[in-house]
Design a protein that fits this description.
Radius of gyration: 48 Å
Strand content: 15-25%
Helix content: 40-55%
Shape: rod-shaped
Length: 354
Amino acid sequence: MKKKYTVTDRLITRITGWIAGMIVLALAVWGVFTLWGYYTYEQTNDAQVQEYVNPVIARAGGFIVAVKFEENEQVKKGDTLLIIDNREYALQQEQTEASIRKAEAQLRVLQSNVHTLGKTAASAKSKIAATKAEVWKQQLDYDRYQQLYKEESATKQQLEHVKATLDVNTSDYQSAEDNYGAAVSRIGDIEAEKTVVLAEIARLKALLDRHKLDVSYTVVTASYNGRMGRRTVEVGQMIDAGETLAFIVNDETDKWVVANYKETQVANMHIGDSVKVVADAYPDQAFRGTIISLSPATGSSFSLLPPDNSTGNYVKIVQRVPVRIRIDGERKTIDVLKVGMNVNVYVRKKQHRG
């Protein structure tokens, strides 16, 4: 018995055929575009957005008394991020300032002593001149009385009196010279003491600068414009110097992509080549970039345990070469790309070069 097709069956068959044809056509178009893309571009999806993410590190230890930021908050250069209790550092600074004042007072005393001893030395020097004149006069008298005594024109008692006076004046002259020498020597000793005190003042001033730095370190500020990331501290927490307190993403530097291309794909890549970047998060938006560097070695060569093919277990594996690509465009446009986002990168195989 011959099977008859109804109008409905013919309609369904026709619609099904059209749908199948459209699917085949769509697959063909997709295949053509895909093959054209592979023919035109070196592509990889082994790529991520990178940006400088720096830790916020305390340079002083102590208790945190205030936290001035929240996670994901935009901050400006110089904004206060957190404050550490600075009382201990302030006390050390005050102690050093007091030590400096004490040393400066000692220096003023020594300078006063030098001034006093200078006057003493000047007086002793004047006395030397006076006693020297007395000795010279008395020596003449002694020589004259000695001659008179020989001529029996003077008594022995007179000669002895003149000789005693000469001895006294000579002793006074020697004493004046000794006093002058002692004063000059003491001035030298005090000048040496001043050198020691000046060195101590310099040391204390350097220590004071260090204490001032310690006090300034208790206020942690943003080093540049950026966005705060995850924070790990809270008010009342005890921290140590060098401890990581939070992370900040630097907004003052470029964003870039590290694309790990196969070694068979990088032969025609050069610094300055234009790149198209499509993020998984924004598949309908294309970003432009520029190749700024190619790694001097494959990624595996920088690993903790680089492969050693000479050990006898060689298996050929296609290696990856990191290519660094700067994202071009206005900051507000490219800010939608976040650190760590996966992207697809397309580099034209043949680019015009002037």
